[in-house]
Amino acid sequence: MASITLDGLAHAYRPDPRGPQDYALKEINHVWRQGGAYALLGPSGCGKTTLLNIISGLVVPTRGKILFDGRDVTRLPTEARNIAQVFQFPVVYDTMTVRENLAFPLKNRHMPREAIARRVEEIASRLDMSSVLDRKASNLTADAKQKISLGRGLVREDVAAILFDEPLTVIDPHLKWQLRSTLKELHRALDLTMIYVTHDQTEALTFADTVVVMHDGAVVQTGTPEELFERPAHTFVGHFIGSPGMNVLPAAVEGRTAHVGGVAIGLTRAYPALPAGEKIELGVRPEFATLAPAGTGVPVKVQRVDDIGRARIARIEIGGQPAAALMPEGLSLHGDEAGLTLDPRQIHIYAGGVLVNGEGAL
Ligand SMILES: Nc1ncnc2c1ncn2[C@@H]1O[C@H](COP(=O)(O)OP(=O)(O)OP(=O)(O)O)[C@@H](O)[C@H]1O
User: What is the CATH number of domain 4-233?
Assistant: First the structure.
């Protein structure tokens, strides 16, 4: 196990980068703590694989350094980095049994035979594969083969880190939720540094203690799942995490009041230093905006109500801007006029997409 430090890392695939637009990865400074469970979350093309390849040694960054436990490994090849990797698609030897596949990384490192047997049994049991240990891998389903790949990644105790690159892509949806929690349990039990790359917020939020959210080659927020939910540092995080995502409404702020299309919304903080020329927006998650009878709270128009299983979500307009809110049990609507009650501590103000810390909280 190791801590991994990204020190001023940046990468451009073209040899003569001129400006930020030429960088697939803009400058990143970050420390992955030893034994931590991390997710690297972002949409396709945001730079996740580039960063993962820099960590694993497949790509040498244009600028900056990568340190494992303080040791500069920036130019070391993958083999010299002592990391395990699990990819989207199974990497297994079909002619070997499950047991032989799991034992392979340990045999390669000349671990004593009894120690190998013990470790293989332990990992197989944690992945619920004990009953198939002596089956040939070729006879197994794609799900089972990917579980072997996970096992081969997890079997070594001496790795600096395990990198997972969208490891549940081929897993049947019914099994996905189960494997997500298995991986979380494995992290607790095995105390390894794990970095899990995904574009799927559910996978990231279930697995990781700390999620690094990337957008357009840059890290826009690093935080616990709760922090990302309750205090998105960027409107992108607000949109990308949550279902439906955060409401982001163009606003003008005066004192402790935000105006959204002529509708006044009370704030708990003042924002005297908002940068001129930047787009000002108010962000509030649907979970903190509850529909109420007309005449209560902020006046809104209701367009429709969607049942999304765990809740009913009202599609509304605030000052002409589309938004989503919780539809409470037992509320009956008359026409399209309604009120909206907002949790004032959960209303955030953004300038140019970036969260602004207000002053003088009430
Ligand atoms: N070998 C390469 N040469 C040139 N450009 C590349 C190369 N690999 C990636 N890119 C570009 O770098 C940017 C980041 O790509 P990257 O694969 O790191 O993103 P990602 O978040 O992992 O996306 P995905 O989930 O689709 O793999 C993209 O604009 C991509 O087109």
Answer: 3.40.50.300
